[in-house]
Amino acid sequence: MGSDLLQDIKYSVLDLAVITEGQSPADAIHNSRDLAKQVEKMGYTRFWMAEHHNMENIASSATSVLLGYVAEATDSIRIGSGGVMLPNHSPLIIAEQFGTLATLYPNRIDLGLGRAPGTDKATAQAIRPDRMQQVRQFPNNVRQLQQYFSEHHNENTIRAVPGEGTNIPLWILGSSTDSARLAAAMGLPYVFASHFSPQQLDSALRIYRKEFQPSEQLDEPYVIPCVNVIAADTDKQAEWLATSFKQMFMGVVTGERKPMPPPVDDMNTVWNLQQKMAVKQMLTYSFIGSKETIKKELSDFVEETEADEIMIASYIYDHQQRIKSHRLFAELMQGKDGD
Predict the structure, then answer these.
(1) Distance of alpha carbon 234 from alpha carbon 292, whole angstroms
(2) Model-level pTM?
(3) Is residue 2 very low, low, confident or very high in pLDDT (cuts 50, 70, 90)?
């Protein structure tokens, strides 16, 4: 039953252009582009990149620029933001940037929108001093984007060119019930950040589905939970590979955002009990192991959440192992091998 359930849903990638120890930002960006090319062949639906700032381990700060670099190297996979942090930007500038992408790569661009800063408080202030005011304007700014992308906007004084008439699909990203209510009220698809903020997943999805209002873009609710996945030939190897990403999230807890380190044989030599518990709580929805292990656990998760699509974040130190993990995941989603 589990295998059949997974074969019915789409699967996609969230990428942060993570910089590993010994790597330059250019290396990380080239690897992201290569990963996009590889997962396109594996049947993934989307390749999204997320906006972050002032982080030594993440190279996806200029998100729209990177998306163009990735879109140019691929042919069919949808390319998008997971997401653009809209309060950091003018809606018109985002409309022009993504409108340009959609003009160059028609019917392939997604625009996922969040309202978090994607950084620390001081950096958020440097990006936009009136940011908190813009957070309150988030719903209006999303509507403004819809207008800029509409073909009916050509009589307005301020227009997005390119962008007008592209009708780029918008997505609301979130990790709380507030975002769920907004996505439902606007009739937009909803992506939940359960890969690092799992607490409100169930209540947010319940509210979103209950309050959903159909829109021009979407007739009925559409949900993508994002989860962490590290797949390998054996559970033991996957757990070893996962020590890199556990160390990276330990950096989130301690505030030390250093490049992602190589795996270690024993995490207890790296973290204390308090850090371990904090990381474990953040990474509740992490699927680590062989295809058989992940398939069973993920099937239960999909059944519980009634997900329409799954988006995976895979933080692995070695690029080839990362590609292999994505291949194994694609195979289990397609019901190949190991059934």
Answers:
(1) 9
(2) 0.94
(3) very low
